[in-house]
Amino acid sequence: MLTHDAAREWIARWDRQQEGYLPDREERFTALIDALEALDRPDPLVIDLGCGPGSLSARIVERLPEARVVSVDADPLLLGLGRAAYPGLTFVPADLRTPGWSDLLGLDRPADAAVSTTALHWISGPDLLRVYTELAGVLRPGGLLLNGDHLDSDDVTPELARLERALHERETERVFGAERPEDWRAWWEAVSADPALAELDRERTTAGADHHGSESHLLSEHVEALRAAGFGEVGTLWQRGNNRLLCAVRG
């Protein structure tokens, strides 16, 4: 059985391995939640897209206890960890690339915001436009998409893109040096070796939840898809190297 304490330990380990790729991860979380707070609504309805085990969702309700967060992911194992660790959150199994995912959310009013961190770059091409178009349909006018991710500008400003990556690499080196945290692959290998997670791991394999397909790592891909989907203003609210918080306002 997966206990609450064991799930929290696995999520803490998840957070550490993610910080190995994002030494300023907590700063990005803080900036994102600051933007939610600036909506000046005490009880915002928020959709967490590609929520993983709920790291961002949990931080939102810690800062904004009246917020209602609906957390969406396609990975049964990560959802299982989230449900065991954060019983007060709402987790919804859904693949954003499958049209109709928003019907599964159980929303009773348009959402005030959608958030995501290090997830939407796994969606590319026509799927990206479909996701943003469907998202626009469940956000209120003036609602926000807040997407924290590594997004590059090589197609528009290649020298700036090179410098942004250099800043990120140097910061990572300053923070960790040779003592890098456990990486993504090692975390998943450890998960597969834990008997308490065996059932969830089998569900994950059956569901084919591994990442696949090409990545949408260019900033321009997301900006163009958002504008085509009906979002008006699109811009970067926070940035450190090529790690940025992209914000789009639903028209």
From TrEMBL:
Enzyme class, first EC level, given as a word: transferase
Residues covered by the Methyltransferase domain: 46-143
EC number: 2.1.1.-
Record-linked InterPro entries: Methyltransf_25 (IPR041698), SAM-dependent_MTases_sf (IPR029063)
GO MF entries: methyltransferase activity
Pfam families, per the entry: Methyltransf_25 (PF13649)
Any single GO BP term: methylation
Keyword terms: Methyltransferase, Transferase
Protein name: Class I SAM-dependent methyltransferase
Originating species: Nonomuraea bangladeshensis
Species classification: Bacteria, Bacillati, Actinomycetota, Actinomycetes, Streptosporangiales
